[in-house]
Amino acid sequence: MSSLAARQPMLTEGPIARTLLTFALPILGSTVLQSLNGSVNAMWIGHYLGEAALTAVSNANLILFLLLGAVFGLSMACTILIGQSLGARNMLEAKRVVGTGVTFFVSVSVLVAIGGYFATPWMLAALNTPVDAQAFAVPYLRIIFVAVPSMYFYNFLMMTLRGAGDSRTPFLFMGLSVLLDIVFNPLLIFGVGPFPKLGIAGSATSTLIAQTVALFALLATLYVRKHFLRLTRAELGFLKPNLEILRALVFKGLPMGLQMIVISTSAMIMIHMVNSYGSKTTAAYGAATQLWTYVQMPAMAIGAAVSSMAAQNVGARLWDRVSRITRVGVLYNFVLSGALIAVIYVFNHGALNLFLPNDAEALTLAQHLNGIAVWSFMFFGVTFVLFGVVRSTGAVLPPLVILFISMWLIRPPFALALAPSLGADSIWWSFPLGSLASMLMAMGYYKWGGWRRAHMLSKPIETPEDKAAAAGQQAPTTGQGVPASAD
Q1: Burial code of 98-127, b = ≥16 C-beta within 10 A, e = fewer?
Q2: Whole-angstrom Cα distance, residue 82 to residue 74?
Q3: CA angle 379-383-388, nearest 5°?
Q4: What CA–CA distance (Å, rounded) separates 446 from 433?
Q5: DSSP secondary structure code for residue 483 in this structure
Q6: Residues 206, 195: Cα–Cα separation, whole Å
Q7: How far apart are CA 128 and CA 236, in angstroms?
């Protein structure tokens, strides 16, 4: 048995509140690092390469977000499958998931990279990217597509580790990736020292270098430490895709990926409505959404942590712990999100002034809309925690339907219907209404829905304990909550 396996705590053991917080904080840290990286890259490009270059990156990032949104769902399905397998003490099933996942993500990423590279001009034209920005966007996006295999495989490994109960290692290597990206950005944009001057292509190249180096460093670390989920030479047969697992990755992963697309397309609809009220209102909304990005981070981190933790406990059939994980997750959401929201209310003017330094009218508008909408993100947080729990069993369609109803069928129609009487306030009030509706629907499904009977695989996992019980003997374990491995 590996030394890492011996140190790795299972999420089915120990005090729930402390375990969940310890697991969620590195996920939150990873999200903050990613946002920081994006902001630093945008600063270099916007300040030194001009508005056309920044517009190019914004359009390219829309395409990248859709690609990463889809792979997020597939990675999340892998996380849940691994969590359930380990919770059931079924190491063989966990390794099958890893092997199938490796083959699937490598294959898909190569196809996406090749197709995206050649289709880049067409995609940018479909987005109606300004002509002056296309000259920057084409080389930038093509290099990003070259980086897609590293991005996809790196993301898959990080989600695999989280499914195994380890969020600290992904955080450390996310830190390495962000540090490399930030360092190489100016060096490759401006051609400092021995580095070539690549302009906007340098920003994309720094991302390619950072992701690739971090990926190989993570792989090397897992093998040096003899991580219990690594595939040894004798286990390379697991790389042959298991059709049952492959079906689960696709049919359970795609609905989770579509949730991200529902959120992003809803945001596009809302910004279209906001634009109709003029540039001052759009600037105010843009400043507020900068703050909202950070307000949502704790809820999303807790939702991801709850999903991994609940998956292991579902696999172990510890339903009482699953219920307590839900309650603790909701409580943490109120504490962490509530604290951030309180800070924003206290420092509303100062926080928004960071993004609107010289525009008193837009600043006043931003304070007004923030006062109406920002508190509702606590509802959003409850929804994400409940979604994290129910999807841990394989119930992935109801959360997608709930999001679609609240973000497409409630929020935009409400804003349009009340626009003649409330003006732009109809948009701001649609946010609390949509968040409240999604929370109530999520609570209803959690309490009365059939999510506990859902499953990731069409055939239930036969655990070592089941086999041992049938044979009248105990299944061997390490005593650390991790099955003994022959590696």
Answers
A1: bbbbbbbbeebbeebbeebeeebeebbeeb
A2: 13
A3: 150
A4: 20
A5: B
A6: 11
A7: 46
pLDDT for position 9: 54
pTM: 0.86
Q: What is residue 90's three-state secondary structure?
A: coil
Half-sphere exposure of 211 (CA within 13 A, CB side): 23
Distance between CA atoms of 299 and 411, rounded to whole angstroms? 20
Q: Who's near 208: CB < 8 A, 6+ residues apart?
A: 143, 144, 146, 147, 150
CA distances from 418 to 44, 289, 368, 412 (A): 41, 22, 18, 10
Domain boundaries, the chain: 10-241, 258-465
Contact (Cβ atoms closer than 8 angstroms) between residue 386 and residue 302: no
Per the CB < 8 A criterion, the answer to whether 129 and 55 are in contact is: yes
DSSP, res 476: P
Name which residue leads in pLDDT, 360 or 203: 203
Sign for the CA dihedral angle at 214, 219, 223, 225 comes to positive
- How far apart (Å, rounded) are the C-alpha atoms in residues 343 and 299? 16
pLDDT digits (tens, 9 = 90+) for 31-86: 999 888 887 887 788 777 877 787 777 778 778 877 777 788 899 999 999 999 99
Q: What is the pLDDT of residue 60?
A: 81
Looking at residue 461, its pLDDT comes to 45
Q: How far is CA 477 from CA 80, 201, 226, 241, 480, in A?
A: 21, 51, 18, 27, 8
**Average pLDDT of 266-282?**
86
Among the listed residues 10, 34, 40, the one whose alpha carbon sits nearest the alpha carbon of residue 23: 10
**Average pLDDT along the chain:** 87
Give the C-alpha separation, 94 to 91, whole Å: 5
Of 159, 462, 144, nearest to 307 by C-alpha is: 159
Q: How far apart are CA 311 and CA 79, in angstroms?
A: 8
- Taking residue 150's Cβ as centre, other Cβ atoms within 10 Å add up to 22
Rg of the chain in Å (alpha carbons): 23
